[in-house]
Amino acid sequence: MITHNKEEGVIADDAIRYVLIRPDVLMGVAHQLPVDQASIFLDALEKSAFENSRDSFAHYRRSGRFGYADFLLRTAEVAATLGWGAWTIHKISPSASRVEVRNSPFAAGFGRSEAPVCAPIRGVLRAIALIGYGDSAAVRETCCASQEGVNVCHFHIQVD
Ligand SMILES: [Zn+2]
After folding, report:
1. For residue 16, which phi and psi values (nearest 5 degrees)?
2. Which parts of 34-152 are beta strand (E)?
3. Which helix (H) or strand (E) is 156 found in, with range?
4. Distance (Å) from CA 7 to ligand 1 centroid
5. What is the dihedral of CA 95, 98, 99, 103, to 10 degrees?
6. How far is the CA of 103 from the centre of ligand 1 (A)?
7. CA of 54 to the centre of ligand 1 (A)
8. What is the pLDDT along the chain (160 residues), one digit of tens a residue?
9. Closest by Cα among 143, 114, 125, 111 to 46
10. Using CA atoms, how far apart are residues 36 and 114, in angstroms rounded to an integer?
């Protein structure tokens, strides 16, 4: 459970710190870099989201908060609580799922883009596949609300 300790200026979930930051401040890092380096920033953000959320999910697993069967569903609930948009999960086959995300803060914070930008969600979905189900997975954002004419971000998860 997320706690707000106003006296200490700390938001935390057990020992895991959180911070509220405007999404345009976070995603605006890409706009501060030379154009050809924005994708390097997004790839690094994906890897950081994967590595750090993997540790969070391992903690949730050890504490018994997340079971196996409902791991992705429980994560979707937590994502909404943390302001990461509204996630809907569709199982396509035993080895593939599609996740739709309405109101991604990362797309909103980035603004218009030709390519998908929700790198943190990609990283978290990859961590979910690994910790929740023991699988290494490839995650692609097939379309993004940052793109012209798209309202909802779509992610395709393919387990190896
Ligand atoms: Zn997106």
Report:
1. -90, 120
2. 86-93, 96-102, 137-143
3. strand 153-159
4. 36
5. 160
6. 9
7. 20
8. 789 999 999 999 888 899 999 999 999 999 999 988 999 999 999 999 999 999 888 887 787 777 666 778 888 888 998 999 999 999 898 889 999 999 999 999 999 999 999 999 999 999 988 887 777 899 999 999 999 999 999 999 998 7
9. 125
10. 13
> What is the 3-state composition of the chain as percent helix, strand, coil, each rounded to the nearest 5?
45, 25, 30
- Residue from 97, 99, 116 nearest 107 by CA: 116
Distance (angstroms) between ligand 1 centre and the Cα of 85 equals 10
Whether the pTM exceeds 0.90: the reply is yes
